[in-house]
């Protein structure tokens, strides 16, 4: 059985959507860290922080879904 790390590597090599989601996730994390550097956040920064967190979570959820689909396809090739 493949590990999540092995599947992630395979998807990086073969799946453009996964690569784009991963890049987006990293970009959002960097933007979020910039906002979190401020001890006190303005209302705009607070709104931006919440939006970035939602977008980051959505990207992570979609990557997890692609990993799950890949695993199922590897474990049950005749079913797909």
Category from helices, strands and their pairing: mainly alpha
Tell me which oligomeric state these chains represent: single chain
Q: Which radius of gyration do the C-alpha atoms yield? A: 16 Å
Order of helices and strands: HHH
Span between N and C termini? 18 Å
Fraction in beta strands: under 5%
Q: Determine the number of helices (DSSP H or I, runs of at least 4 residues).
A: 3
The helix content, as a percent range, equals over 70%
Q: Note the main sheet.
A: none
Global shape? elongated
The number of E-state strands comes to 0
Average pLDDT confidence is 94
Low-pLDDT stretches are none
Total tally of structural domains = 1
Would you mind describing this structure in some detail?
It is a single chain. The protein has 80 residues and is mostly helical. The protein contains three helices and no strands. It has helices spanning 4-14, 16-36, 43-75. The chain has one domain (4-73).
Any key phrases for this structure?
80 residues, mainly alpha, 3 helices, 81% helix, 0% strand
Explain the layout of strands and helices.
Elements: H1 4-14, H2 16-36, H3 43-75
Helix pairs in contact: 1-3, 2-3
